[in-house]
Specification:
The protein has 371 residues and is α/β, with parallel strands linked by helices. It has 7 helices and 15 strands. α2 links the parallel β4 and β5.
Length: 371
């Protein structure tokens, strides 16, 4: 069983009734860390990023990527183009959409590490009837521009899971497992794996394949990346500022209750069957990291899955922030633009870092290895 030691130094940012920039800074006075052997960068919801000048978060990310070089990967966690994905050539907002995706592509075009893009709900034409067509158009555009192979995963609108070995180290391997969770939620045409006859059978295959990947790589470090989180302290998780209850009075509270109990189609309350299925498939892996975007904030949420301790990372504030509940207990949050880095060390310790748009670490958390 792993022992997880969490040291805290609170940093408080003044705020009103909504959530603020609150972070827990880890003390490493008793640690003697060398350089990480590998880094994984998580950045989501960059779909509103500017190009000229380049979005500040992407400038910071580029600097970090170039410093880490080949010993690192970057995963764009979906909603790569707002508002509705990449329109056809000559279509309305095509130029704007190209600018937004180019800001991300130019950030990584000279980066020697591994690049991965996964889709979000907006990339599927915001769950529109032509979502699959818009998604495939974006995949083709990204891979054609970067010209570095299969970087948009899973392929062709399929749901995954896709397993990618990021690094093989003397002491441990790192497996990245990629899912298109919007496939599960999309109400219109979507592809099935060869030999699968219907959507329900495909859902069963997704969960069974995911379970088998975990079992096969049970001794490795595993990061599962999708667009939709399992847990969230933001709006999709039913968390709202106190002011929402009073705007208007009574009806505001009814609205909050609805988002918690029933939820909008993109809320965790609505896709609880997806959440439950994924958790069951992943429950055997101690220390697993589940990374997502969707919420426009940075979040670190430890949780218990069966007998094992696992971690939800939310990194969806590449181009705009929104409300997130203040840090409390073991949970840490940041309301502001930024991204998350995972640093892996030779002793199998991991360090989680929250980076903001100014190039500062506003939170870090140490996850100790087996003793």
């Amino acid at each position: 069983m792993k022992k997880y030691i969490f040291g805290f130094t609170l940093i408080f940012f003044l705020a009103g009734c909504s959530s603020t920039n609150v972070s827990h800074q880890e003390s490493d006075s008793n640690q003697n860390y060398n350089e990480p052997v590998y880094s994984v960068y998580l950045i989501g919801d960059a779909g509103a990023a500017t190009l000229e000048p380049r979005e500040p978060v992407l400038e910071v990310l580029h600097t970090q990527l170039m410093q880490s070089g080949e010993r690192s990967s970057v995963i764009f966690l979906g909603d790569n183009v707002y508002p509705d994905g990449l329109p056809p050539k000559g279509g309305e907002k095509r130029n704007q959409s190209e600018t937004r995706i180019l800001s991300q592509l130019e950030t990584v075009e000279d980066y020697p590490g591994r690049v991965v893009f996964i889709p979000g709900n907006h990339d599927w034409n915001t769950s529109g009837r032509d979502g699959l067509e818009w998604l495939n158009r974006q995949e083709e555009y990204i891979e054609s521009y970067l010209d570095r192979g299969n970087v948009f995963l899973p392929d062709n609108g399929l749901p995954g899971p896709v397993s990618v070995e990021l690094v093989t180290h003397a002491d441990f391997n790192i497996q990245l497992v990629l899912l298109d969770t919007q496939w599960w939620l999309h109400p219109y045409d979507k592809p099935l794996d060869a030999g699968v006859e219907n959507e329900e059978d495909q859902k069963h295959e997704i969960l069974q394949d995911l379970k088998e990947i975990v079992e096969k790589n049970i001794e490795d470090e595993i990061v599962v990346a999708s667009h939709h989180p399992l847990f969230s302290l933001g709006r999709h998780g039913g968390k709202f500022p106190t002011s929402t209850h009073f705007l208007p009075p009574v009806f505001g509270s009814i609205y909050v209750a609805y988002r918690n109990i029933r939820g909008y189609p993109q809320d965790i309350a609505r896709y609880d069957n997806l959440k439950e299925g994924l958790m069951k498939s992943l429950e055997e892996k101690e220390g697993l990291i589940y990374a997502s975007g969707h919420e426009h904030s940075l979040q670190f949420i430890p949780y218990q899955n069966g007998q094992n301790r696992q971690y939800q990372l939310v990194s969806g504030s590449a181009s705009k922030p929104s409300f997130v509940k203040k840090s409390s207990g073991e949970n840490s949050t940041y309301r502001g633009e930024g991204f998350i880095a995972i640093r892996y060390f030779r002793d199998q310790t991991k360090r989680i870092e929250f980076w903001n748009e100014s190039g500062s670490i506003v939170h870090q958390r140490i996850i100790e290895a087996d003793e």
